[in-house]
Automatic annotation (TrEMBL):
Glutathionylspermidine synthase pre-ATP-grasp-like domain ranges (all copies): 448-813
InterPro entries: CP_ATPgrasp_2 (IPR025841), GSPS_pre-ATP-grasp-like_dom (IPR005494)
Gene3D superfamilies: 3.30.1490.270, 3.30.1490.330
Superkingdom, taxonomy of origin: Bacteria
One Pfam family linked to the record: CP_ATPgrasp_2
Domain Circularly permuted ATP-grasp type: 117-350
Taxonomic classification: Bacteria, Bacillati, Bacillota, Clostridia, Eubacteriales
Keywords in alphabetical order: ATP-binding, Ligase, Magnesium, Metal-binding, Nucleotide-binding
UniProt-recorded name of the protein: Glutathionylspermidine synthase family protein
Amino acid sequence: MYGKLSDKLLFDYYMIHSTRKEDIYCTVPFYISKEEYKEFKDSSEILNKLVYRIMSNITDEFKDFQSFIPDFQYKDKILNLKRPLGDTFWVRYDSFIRAKGGVFYSEFNYDKPCAQREILATGEMEANNNINLEYRDRFKKAFEKLLKAQPHKENYTIALLSDPCHAEEAHIMYLLEKELKRENVEFIRVGPKNLYVENEQVYGFKRQIDIILRLFPTEFSYEINDFDKILEVFEKGRVDIANDARVIIGQCKNLYTYLWQLTKAKDKRLTELEMEIIAATLPHTELFDKSKINYILEHKNELVLKPVYGRYSIDVFIGSLHTEEEWKKSVQYVLESGKDFIIQEFCEIKPSDSYYTPDGKFVIPTKAFANIGCFIFDNELSGCCIRWSGDYLTTDDYTWITPIGIKSDAVKINSAALDEKQRKKLWNKITERAMFEADFTGRYVKNFEYVGLDYITLEKNKYEELKEATSKMASIMHKTQSLLYNNIDYFADILGIENLKEILKYKFTEEFVFLARMDWAIDFSGNLKLLEINSETPAGLIESLYIDNIMKAELNINKSSANEELKSKIIKQFTKIMEDYSKVHSIKTIGILSSTYYEDWYTTNTLYKTLKELPFEFVVGTIYDCTVSDSGKISLFNKELDAVYRYYPLDWFDLEGMTDLKEALKNTLSINPTHTIISQSKAFFAVMYEFLNQGFYNEEESRLITKYIPKTSLDVEKLETYDYIVKPILSREGRGIDLAFELKDIPDENHIYQGRVHTLNVDYTVHDNIDKFQDVLYPIFGAYVTGTEFAGIYTRLGKFVTQNLCIYTPAFIE
């Protein structure tokens, strides 16, 4: 119905029209873990029951809290109401994830909790385990409960009270009227000057009011006509108010001061569990007074100053965001303001380095902070509103909203409980064993530790799916590659291999590949996504064949490795290709060749160790030491080679001026067949999608392609999204890859466009040669393929586009 999301939000959800309407909402979901969601749910529900208990007993059991509540007009009358406190209709806790783990609540909002629009709208957006999926139903059930608590009537009239000068809340009232519409309920939108009392009844625009549903601050209730009389008729049960004005008790930020005092004193009015939750989730708080000025000035970075009745982040001062001089001025302002303030512990919020801000078209990666508004109905966490900002304070002029879900736990990081000294000792032992047992000297990448001790566990069912998907996709690719090979004169240019098509015609095996690696990601919903295939030069063998086992032994890991059959499958596939090649001419001497790059040498050396017991003479060296013999074969160290395994991309021969060696592949058989350059091309997936549209694949093959391969095309328009990445056709190690928003111009040719996968990320402690730091990294599971069969996994963690600067972490099966 609507062409743009902003139109739907404007007309269906009464969003305020503004110049920012296109960049207020981002459809990319934000995900929290199951553990974080459980922390929010358990702690907020227990705290809400506690606050309700305090509000209900403010004149007896918790009477001592009255002195913590600053004066405002009608305070005494409200606190001494005799009518039993009804259920709170709605409550919102402003919630955050701590930088070092755990959750906390910066404040409670009992008085006028907004964000209903955001939660309703995001509940309709796509997100795995969408937290807001049932919010609308729970909202309506809470409303039904509110009606049932009223004296029975045929029809009810509800006044929706908000400040008409605050457009956001006024617009929410339109939304509430639409969402809560019932045949026996009439809604009237009113401001503070539209209510009055006559004959012990409340009226709004001459209609008798049964319920006042309000988004209006209690401390400003003196602005409401006849408010003292409204309280009197409320006391007599002639009108209901939701939320009851006594929720100012929970709204008052000095409640934190009171709760902390009770907790420190181990006051018996609180349970042990309540005290534990207060200590864990509420920032330490005390009342501001002049005697604490020196402490406040000296501990700037540890403190936040807030007005007891503050709203919209007005007059909130975060010391760590101030210079010394600014902090002095802010403290002086607090002294002179005449308002009551609290001193609150500064809690560092976990930033998201991998989140996105919208600009109307693209989504742009940014560092942002998530304010998670936990909404509670009937004492149950019922939905969460995510408001993002680039700073600790959320303000209307630069915040944006996203869906929120619970991320899949298919992948977990497992850390050994070691102090830094123990960790370094163990890391040295593992990397030294790798050095002596496997000739591995790459324990650092630049100054970062390449070998990580925090290993990954993969759910058993996800691992089984990965195995099956890898093998099935390999078969589909084999079918595709065969068609392209048989029509190479037509497809070579599309694949970017026009100058290689002649050498491809020397084909001596029908095998798909000798050894390849499919790079899989897992998105936040736990879905496997195939990003690309490296058909020619798959790295990671030394890690997968040797270091996995060393780490398993040293870390006492009692889980299965994905690489237990990798060696035998490599040998099996090598033997199969040798059988095919022996039909062409006898194979005696085999060269294993690479560039001089150290990682390439690890791979060729590892492959030699894997194959050396076979009945062939193996010669290991670099491609640059090779020559062409008189018979037209490749020679290394004066040995004429019958076959080679070239850990060297076929397209590089021309780039580096070695066309003579390329031509020699007509006579020296390539164990990784030259035709594998077809599936190596990034355009291969784009061609698969074209074939998909032309009906080349059967129903099952088509389903697998669309399930696992992100939509890929040579034409950006066919993606029908602004959220894509651009890849050069023959790039490797992440070189030349751009996100859509980074482009100044659309590349003319030799690039493909692929829908971006929102890859599941993990929090990881990165160590360098001096220190350590927390980072958000993305696991990529490189599934080895021998022929068309899954063979093992090489796992690495890197930034969103994984390049050669990454961390190796073995994956084991849960």
